[in-house]
Amino acid sequence: MAAQEKINISQIVDNSELTPFHWTLIFLSSLCLIMDGYDVQAMGYVAPVLIREWGVPNSALGPVFSAALVGVLFGSLGCSMLADRFGRRPLLIIGSLYFAVLTLATTQAHTINQMLAIRFIAGLGLGGMMPNAMALVGEYSPKKSRVVIMMIISTGFTAGAALGGFVAAWLIPAFGWRAVFYFGGIIPLVIAVVMFKYLPESLQYLVLQGKKKETVRTWLMRMNPKAPPPPESAEYMVQEEKRSGVPAAHLFKEGRGMTTVLLWTVNFMNLLNLYFLSSWIPTVVRDSGYSTRTAVLAGTMVQIGGTVGPFVTGWFITRYGFVPTLTVSFFCASLSISAIGQPGLSMVMLFAAIFMAGWCVVGGQPGINSLAAMYYPTYLRSTGIGWGLGIGRIGAIVGPFVGGQLMALHWTNRELFYAAAVPAFVSALVTFSLRFFMKLPEPEPSVLRQQMAAH
């Protein structure tokens, strides 16, 4: 390379091949989301035991579920903008350390109010994990496999939530509910140490922010060790421009306003359903006469469906695009949620309905996140994903709380799940309407099908 040569980072990343560097990044980001999902869902798994041990009604835990999600709401809004200002890497490392400590602190709660306060504070750190992990992985992924990779790492959250069910089913009978949070606190401490050594910062972010060229050069060589190292005098550029001002304000500029509102609406409705199902299915199943172990495993089926779903949903996205695939998925979610509350279902049919609801609701969220990551530019990516998830967390707060209130009013299971089917149907309608406003080319089927087959 000649001295003073300009190197286009965007083109290098877009045309790169997957190397051990990429797989390390994908692995570490997935671990972050696995533990994020584990921690967020852990309360739903320990709820049946807490209700009996502390002698409180079901509805008393509704505010606890919601408190954690209020923290996640503010964390999503604040941490995503901080990441677009200060970088993805520091926010992910600090966030892992933060929620590890707060998860361990959960074991010291002895009253509902103590649990509520700790879970709210923990949520502030949890809110920054998903948008920053998605943004960082997307900004290092080759263009031909970017959507697939983002869908894959998004399943880390649901895989972690499912893992929580199996861990809880094993730990609670042997060691009590606190063991679930000891496990969920120690692992992120280890992950944070590993990330400090191996997690890179986004090349596009570094260039847009005018950070040290030597840092860009270092990560560029690690990403593509077989390529000749760029000269120290090289100038780096990206195919985007930086915008000044508050990042959130730019979500409504340059024709993005209506699409942003629609994405927020889908996030709200889908996360309302996701957290209603995740929080209350174990308790509803237990109250239907099943054992605590069966109730926990029923809750786990939501997350298993959500972990498997994105791989199949991703394949359909490569064939038909985001909007048609997600529209059908949310419509099927409405039907399967309605089926859960039907009286007289066998255990097999009940678990099948729960699995399909998880497939379409929990498994649909990675599609929404990936769509946002593809739509927003680098200087807005964390903010775009984070604010969508943040607004969605309002729905996540509403879902468990309203579920608890409806139970307190003695709604039947059929009435409860008929009500929960409505937001999924609204998600389908709003997703369909995105086709009229979103200026985003759908994935190229031939290329992405090959990537899906390779993975």
> How far apart, in Å, are the first and last alpha carbons?
34 Å
Secondary structure tally: strands: 2
Q: Classify the helix fraction into a percent range.
A: over 70%
Output mean pLDDT. Answer: 82
What is the string of helix and strand elements?
A: EHHHHHHHHHHEHHHHHHHH
What structural keywords apply?
455 residues; two-stranded parallel sheet; disordered C terminus
Please provide a written account of the structure.
The protein is mainly α and 455 residues long. The protein is 76% helix and 1% strand. The chain is built from 18 helices and two strands. It has helices at residues 9-14, 20-54, 62-86, 88-106, 112-126, 129-138, 146-175, 178-198, 203-208, 213-223, 257-287, 292-320, 322-340, 347-362, 365-375, 378-408, 413-433, 445-454; strands at 6-8, 235-237. The chain has a two-stranded parallel sheet with strand order 1-2. Helix 3 runs parallel beside helix 5 (112-126) and helix 13 packs antiparallel against helix 17 (413-433). It is globular. Residues 441-455 have low confidence and may be disordered.
What is the topology?
Blueprint: E1 6-8, H1 9-14, H2 20-54, H3 62-86, H4 88-106, H5 112-126, H6 129-138, H7 146-175, H8 178-198, H9 203-208, H10 213-223, E2 235-237, H11 257-287, H12 292-320, H13 322-340, H14 347-362, H15 365-375, H16 378-408, H17 413-433, H18 445-454
What's this model, at a glance?
By secondary structure, the protein is an all-alpha fold. The protein is built from 18 helices and 2 strands.
